[in-house]
Model the fold of this input.
Amino acid sequence: MGAERVFAYGAAAGLLGDLLLGDPRRGHPVAAFGRAATAVERVLWRDHRGWGAVHTAVCAGGAVALGSLAQRAVRRSSAASVALTAAATWSVVGGTSLAREARAIGRALDAGDVEAARARLPHLCGRDPQALDADGIARAVVESVAENTSDAVVGALVWGAAAGVPGLLGFRAVNTLDAMVGHKSPRYRRYGWASARLDDLAGWPGARLTAALAALAGPDPRGALRAWRADAHRHPSPNAGPVEASFAGALGVRLGGTLSYGGRVEHRPVLNRGGRAVAVADIERAVRLSRRVGWLALGAGAAARFLAGPAARASAARASAARASRGKGRTS
Done:
């Protein structure tokens, strides 16, 4: 079985597993990686970019190496290769947990229980919940669903399509490191710089694919493209900007504006200024759009592998033939 079929079957099984099972409540592989990264940090931490770069290389490189070794170990068995890809996909995507948390907050808001929604919001994003009213919480949820569709689903599938199991594990490692040390606190302003920059690079293709698929799958494709073109560059994040702008346009709502993180107030530009304010019902609409985008991303990744596979094999065959020809020339 070719590598393109292994990815298509394995990633589809992994996404289905996430849909049916969600994240494990105990022993999640990403949590295990987080503990390992924390142990590495205890040894390496210095208030210096160089030591932070070493931390990033050790942790992300270790995840890629582990994926490479596992992939090589099962390469002779198609069934084992598909199973490994499925397990890796299930362990790194988080679409079901994202939807579950968003819907739980939506139900609390729908019932008028703002305090319950505030208590649940930290499970989804890092906003200060006490600074938000019901409308602010709904907006925060829609923005988090949009951004995490890229970070927790599409980005992983993009790198899985490009590099198999090492790509899946490597992307999740980089994304997790950014969440752990990539913020601009006094401790991590320099030490976390490399993790934050690498996350920006790794997330770039997935964010653009997410924005494009949101425009394709959303109820207002023209609005999504218009908001993406007009507002994405105004967002402080190079990857969250396209995704949130496209979701805002697709759903016909306004995102962005004033928000608070850890007591620090930020005034972000409004995305899709012509849209209406976010309502509680838009949480469910955003979750459904996120689901459609995730499955479309799987289709796009599988299609890319099927298209690139024959070309890659032909290129490898030509390179092998050229090496053989040079070897004959030296012996004659």
In short: The CA atoms of residues 213 and 296 lie 7 Å apart. Residues 281-331 form the longest helix (51 residues). The beta strands are 258-261, 264-267.
